[in-house]
Design brief:
The chain is α+β, with helices and mostly antiparallel strands. It is about 25% helix and about 35% strand.
């Protein structure tokens, strides 16, 4: 019989947290993720399902919508990433498949992405060293795709002054973490 133990994207048994200059970088392995892409000819019905899921309008370009317990951000025309707490939504993709039916293609994404939460004052200085987005202009609810350390990543502004969520490819979790931590140490 196997004796397997779950590991975080950074290879630990517990999420890693690093602090420097008033900013904390925390690995967040507690998200279930699934992508939703409307099937051709079913875009309006898919959007209606997304609106119902979030109890409001689906996020449009450059935005995300917080809703408890699900939240979603726009990835492209008629495409979204949906996130929820892993503890209660381990089967998120299956739940979405049941809800959306033939209107969308749903893909499990939980193990494809690493999530880092950046908290504290000075986030703008850190992010200015990492990517080419105007982080100071981002408002809560804004989301954008960018490259951080040559890695396609999503940056979500959750709070105006003190919380960003960054999603990047799990296979490059160490590189993304190194880039963010190095920027923290250089900027602060």
């Amino acid at each position: 019989m196997h004796d397997l133990a779950p590991l975080t994207a950074l290879g630990g048994t517990k999420p890693r947290a690093d602090a420097h200059g008033g900013v904390t970088l925390t690995e967040n392995p507690c998200l279930a993720l699934a992508s939703v892409a409307a099937r051709r000819g079913h875009e309006p019905a898919c959007r209606t399902h997304m609106d119902d899921l979030l109890e409001g309008p689906a996020p449009g370009p450059g935005t995300f919508r917080l809703h408890d317990p699900e939240e979603a951000f726009w990835m492209g025309p008629d495409q979204w990433m949906v996130a929820a707490p892993y503890a209660s939504h381990e089967d998120l993709a299956d739940r979405l498949k049941a809800r959306f039916g033939a209107t969308a293609s749903i893909t499990e994404q939980s193990d494809a992405w690493v999530c880092f939460d950046l908290h504290g004052e000075g986030l703008e200085a850190v992010m200015e060293l990492c990517c080419n987005i105007d982080i100071a202009a981002m408002k809560p609810g804004d989301a954008t795709r960018t490259a951080i350390h040559h890695l396609g990543s999503f940056v979500l502004r959750r709070d105006p002054a003190s919380h960003l969520r960054i999603l990047g490819p799990r296979a490059s979790a160490q590189s993304l973490h190194h880039a963010l931590l190095t920027a923290m140490q250089a900027a602060l």
